Amino acid sequence: MSHTLAYILGIVILIIGIGLSVALHELGHMLPAKHFGVKVPEYFIGFGPRLWSTRRGETEYGIKAIWLGGYVRLLGMLPPARPGHPDKPGSMVAEARAESLAELGPDEQDRAFYRLSTPRKLLVMAGGILTNLALGIICLTLALGVIGQPALTSTLTSVAECVSSDVDAGAACTDADPASPAAAAGLRAGDTIVSWDGETTSTWADVQTAIGAAGTEPAVVVVKRDGQELTLTVTAVEVPRTVYNADGVPATDAEGEVVKQLRPYVGIGPALGTVRTPPGEIPQVVGSAVGLTLKAIATLPAGLYHAVAAGLGLEERNAEGLVSLVGVGRIAGEVSSAGTGTDAGLPFSMRLFYMLSLLGSLNLALFAFNLVPLLPLDGGHVAGACWEGLRRLWARARGNPDPGYADTARMLPVGQVVFYLLIVMALVLIWVDIVAPI
Prior knowledge:
Low-confidence stretches: none
Radius of gyration: 30 Å
Number of helices: 11
Number of strands: 10
Largest sheet: 4 strands, antiparallel
Helix content: 40-55%
Mean pLDDT: 91
Order of helices and strands: HEEHHEHEEHEEEEEHHHHHH
Strand content: 15-25%
Structural class: alpha+beta
Distance between the termini: 25 Å
């Protein structure tokens, strides 16, 4: 497959992944709503022109052209105006109330969403949010525990022919150079180190530790080659090796010379691949990802400021900062095409890990973003239901009459402002991803 086709395939996979995430998010709203009797006339993935639809019972299911979201229409989301507090005729609030209740017949008034109890409203509106959280956790768990994180593995990609004059610099072999311990022992590229001197090895770090522990004594090494295990004996030799500091930079002495020390040398190089995260460590890693996502949403204004500053060339773009769908699409394309052309050595497992992680991160972002307690986000409806429940509890505790439904329609003007701000933010981030891509 060509680099261009692989790039496009990555974007297509991302679009399908987003579409499925949206579909499941809306199902998270629709299923409990239908269970509680709310009338649901429409369930659509996407916006814009209708591409396909079918009717099952009272609900029309379909797909629209622009896969940047989706919706499920619940009738009666907004309650009627309070007695004695009519809406201004022709106002946005009045029209929204009328539209919300228009399709409910005289015998269907009890099927309006606003008539649900507070716990049921919370289940319906939080259903989509929690679905994205679950999808994010599932994707990350599969990426970590089934596919594995990118790492240097215990499989060999190279075996040095000799112990050259400078192994760190990769000096060419000469006739005077002795054979490397690996070559002398019969190790080959493609071998997987199963154990070294009795120590089980599943990562390159394990192999390095075992070589260091064995020193220059003969070590029994078990390798897997062509599906069979072989036992070899490897005797490392000591050679000067460069010392690196914690940042991965060669350490230097007082005179500025690179520091070297004698260390066991075998002459093998690891293959890049994936290493599965132990099951006991996965919750911590996933929990950290959820926490970082929540922090990013909580510090959204600051993140947007830094993104704009990067777009204006005032600072470097933060690789972990805010990104638009354009930027996410570029990442998906680069991940998918990383196994073609000059990068053909990048394993498929690594690309699969990155794609699953990307989809998991997107779902966590949708989860965290929808927690914002403002309309038109789900969090705005959750906040309205919580306020309604608190008012009723307070009234009951004081022996007062039921204060009635929370009038979320009054928040529609604020929701409209939030909607336009979201559009502006999306356009700004798209501009930043074009002029200062990550």
